[in-house]
Amino acid sequence: MWQPSIFIFLILLIVSINQLPLARARGQWCVVSPSATDAQMQANIDWLCGHGHVDCIPIKPGGPCFEPDNLRSHVSFVMNQYYQYNGKTEKACYFSNTGIFVFKDPSYGHCEYDY
Predict the structure, then answer these.
(1) DSSP conformation letters of the chain
(2) Total domain count, the chain
(3) How far is CA 39 from CA 18, 45, 50, 67, 88, in A?
(4) Confidence class of residue 3 from pLDDT cuts 50, 70 and 90?
(5) Which domain CATH number covers 33?
(6) Looking at the domain assignment, is residue 46 inside a domain?
(7) For the chain: N or C, fewer Cβ within 10 A?
(8) Which residue range forms the structural domain that includes residue 30?
(9) Would 56 be classed as within a structural domain?
(10) Residue 3: CB partners within 8 Å, gap ≥ 6?
């Protein structure tokens, strides 16, 4: 049988490994593809915000995700919201082939992307 000191060491090792960032569950986010055109990005925003599919207040003036004030930043935020709240499926990030998955949190400043 194991000595108590080895058993305690193994327990502490397991606990400490779970505290490492690499050992934690990683998120997945849906953002707009770098190849998406302005027209495609605007169509995504129009569909998502114009039909109430997501909360677009964070990308409006004064919202935490308004800055930087550009189409790419705004559409990525709302596309991810839709993806996160619609089953996190590949289909929920398709957006006529303009959505891509990233595995690094795109949050910045006070603009926090859900995951």
Answers:
(1) ---HHHHHHHHHHHHHHTTSGGGSPPP-EEEE-TT--HHHHHHHHHHHHHTTSS--GGGSTTSTT--S-SHHHHHHHHHHHHHHTTTT-SGGGTTTTTEEEESS---BTTB----
(2) 1
(3) 44, 10, 15, 20, 25
(4) low
(5) 1.20.58.1040
(6) yes
(7) N
(8) 25-102
(9) yes
(10) none
User: What span, in angstroms and rounded, lies between the C-alpha atoms of 37 and 35?
Assistant: 6
Q: Which of 22, 23, 53, 26 is nearest to 115 (CA)?
A: 26
The answer to whether residue 9 sits within a structural domain is no
- Choose among 41, 25, 22, 29: nearest CA to 113: 29
Query: Which of the four pLDDT bands, split at 50, 70 and 90, describes residue 5?
Result: low
The label of the residue with tokens 């990683």 reads: 26
Cα gap 45→18, rounded to integer Å: 39
pLDDT band at 72 (very low <50, low <70, confident <90, very high): very high
Phi, psi of 15 (to 5 degrees): -65, -45
Q: What length is written for the chain?
A: 115
Look at residue 6 in the predicted model and tell me its pLDDT. 57
